[in-house]
Amino acid sequence: MAVGAVYYAFFKPPVNEVVSTENAAPDAAIPASVYLSSMTDLEGKPVAMDENKLVFVNVWATWCGPCNMEMPGIQKLYDKYKEHEKIAFYIISDEDAGTVNPFIERKGYNLPFYQFAGPYPPALDGNAIPRTYIIYKGKILAQEIGASQWDRPEIVDLIEKQLAEI
User: Fold this and answer.
1) pTM of the predicted model as reported, rounded to 2 decimal places
2) What is the Cα–Cα distance from 35 to 49, expressed in whole angstroms?
3) β-pair partners for 59
4) Strand 113-116 relative to strand 39-41, pairing
5) pLDDT for 19-38, tens place per residue?
6) Residue 115: phi, psi to the nearest 5?
7) pLDDT tens digit sequence for 92-151
8) How far does Cα 72 stand from its chain's mean position?
9) How many beta carbons lie within 10 A of that of residue 97, not counting itself?
10) How far apart, in whole angstroms, are the C-alpha atoms of residue 141 and residue 144?
11) Contact of 29 with 122, CB cutoff 8 Å
């Protein structure tokens, strides 16, 4: 099982880009928003997603092995863009701060961690973690269900391309 997890984290095919819905069937449900409401930081303060930025959303848990495997790559990607004014990162768990904070301290992560309790918008809903989305202006540009290496060149290229257009 560990070999499979390592394979999926580092060698699986690149991120799936979302296909345009312009020619979708008329009855296809398109959610009103992909942004999360009722999110808080780990101190319990309300936080709103910045809808005017390129948004990197990762849904994870401390107990999730694949989540833990991909976190160093997310940290590297965040370190590369943390000072960039056109991108925002949201690393989201439904676990309480008493569980997440010791994990962060033990691992030494310096990421923007948040809590979310409530139903996810349909486009972000799912029962598998980790789930990661790159969103701009309400559209999911890329998504990945399962662990991935988020600092790989094709992800950086996708982000750079989008940032150049903003």
Assistant:
1) 0.79
2) 6
3) 92, 131
4) antiparallel
5) 333 333 333 444 458 888 78
6) -115, 145
7) 999 999 999 999 999 999 999 999 988 888 888 888 999 999 999 999 999 999 999 999
8) 13
9) 16
10) 11
11) yes
Name the amino acid, one letter, at 150: W
Of the CA atoms within 13 Å of residue 26, those in its CB half-sphere come to 0
Which among 79, 89, 100, 81 has a CA at the least distance from the CA of 132? 89
Ramachandran area for residue 81 (φ above 0: left; ψ -120 to 50: alpha; else beta): alpha
3-state secondary structure the chain: CHHHHHHHHHCCCCCEECCCCCCCCCCCCCCCCCCCCCEEECCCCEECCCCCCEEEEEECCCCCHHHHHHHHHHHHHHHHHCCCCCEEEEEEECCCHHHHHHHHHHHCCCCCEEEECCCCCHHHCCCCCCEEEEEECCEEEEEEECCCCCCCHHHHHHHHHHHHHC
Report the distance separating Cα 145 and Cα 60, nearest Å: 11
CA–CA separation, 15 vs 20, rounded Å?
16
> By C-alpha distance, which of 20, 59, 55 is closest to 35?
55
